[in-house]
Amino acid sequence: MEAQAYRATCLESVAAHYDVVLISSVAPTWEQEFLADYEVADPADQAALSAAGRALAERHALAGVMTWTEWYLVPVARLARQLGLPTTAPETLQGCRNKHTSRSLFARHGVPSAASASVHTEHEAAAAARRIGFPVVLKPAAHAGSMGVIRVDTTDELPAAYAFAAQTAGRSVESTQVLVEEYLDGPEVSVECVTHQGQTTVVAVTRKTVGMPPYFEELAHLVDANDPLLATVAPAAVAALDALGVTDGVSHVEIRVVDGRPRLIEVNARIAGDMISHLVHLATGVDLARAAADIACGRTPDLTPTRHRAAAIRFIYPAYSGTLTARRVTQPTEGAERVCFQRQAGDKLLLPQDGGDLFTTRIGYLITTGPTATLAQIRAQEAYRNLDVQVAPVAHTAPAAREHAA
Fold first, then answer.
1. Does the keyword Ligase apply (predicted)?
2. Which of 93, 239, 265, 314 has an alpha carbon 20 to 30 Å from 145's alpha carbon atom?
3. Residue 125 sits in which domain range?
């Protein structure tokens, strides 16, 4: 359900232009209508992935290999190299996956970033936090989606925060390091980039609404084809990709604008999640999924904008932990492109303070469009008000006043 909710538009786009064969850890379900063939194998297992790739290559003339999943970037690049297909070097993608390596390369190439220290114990984390200065951010060195990322304002908060970050880091097969980093105080954006044969084109900037402190959960995104901030952040995004050595593919470069100047958070060398690529397509007409497939096949992508609009997404969360009892659209909203519910009535929703996590607590999302960013956001607010989402609180959580959308 998660993959379908967030990646179906990408797969549909690629399948409209290419015959798609899939390697997946489970047999495809909703993906079947877009596929010519498939193999079941764990893409994180290099040997299994390579065997599945060779099996598909025996049955089909493969033109390219791509992934939009963060954890599979390096294995898929190795598979592409084994098959003699275009790819950014696996060693480069390892540098993107490890945020400590990325910070080192940013510093070496003069890309504005954040002070950062790699630690393995709570004692080391405390020492690094004192050296950098509170507030700091703790995060796993090799994860994604803001998982395990937490802000720490005082020494007293550090033990619990380190345990939270370290638990997530410990599940990674790439690195169990935890990073202690300078907190960058400013608006967060991402820059959606396409690199082909070493030349990067900046396609769009995504303005983010981040909340639920001390976590960094993404609550909403906005893409405006005419965003004036693009000129400010584009050079830093290109410099970051050059510093890491990214040569081919679509990238999602995260930045905070501090005192009017861009500072790098991280580079994700794949198509953005959270439906951002769909927002880019709605706002600009540029198809990032098609571009990624073209580059994987050694073709020059068409990045010509055909629209000059804005698109917004807002995510739906409960106000408190509990059981989802109802979720529906009460009336249509002008400019609402879609409403997607990921959770069903009867599902348990546990926020982090109650032992859950924000990813599985997300109920769904809505997308709106408009000729301007302001109108797209106004329509998103209206569409949110036109939802009826009800959660029965867990016994130990005091119920808040009923809200139309939790």
1. yes
2. 239
3. 115-182
Kindly write down the DSSP assignment for every residue of 104-130, as one continuous string: HHHHHTT-----EEEESSHHHHHHHHH
pLDDT digits (tens, 9 = 90+) for 111-159: 999 999 999 999 999 999 999 999 999 999 876 657 789 999 999 999 9
Q: Is the dihedral of CA 229, 303, 218, 221 positive or negative?
A: positive
pTM, to two decimals:
0.93
Cβ atoms 214, 152 nearer than 8 A:
yes
Report the C-alpha gap between 306 and 124 in whole angstroms.
Answer: 51
pLDDT attached to residue 85? 97
Other Cβ atoms closer than 10 A to 199:
11
Helix or strand (DSSP H, E) at 369:
strand 364-370
Pairing of strands 35-40, 20-24: parallel
Q: Is residue 101 part of a domain?
A: no
Structure tokens, 305: 């904008």
Q: Which amino acid, 69?
A: T
* Residue 361 to residue 215: CA distance in whole angstroms: 14
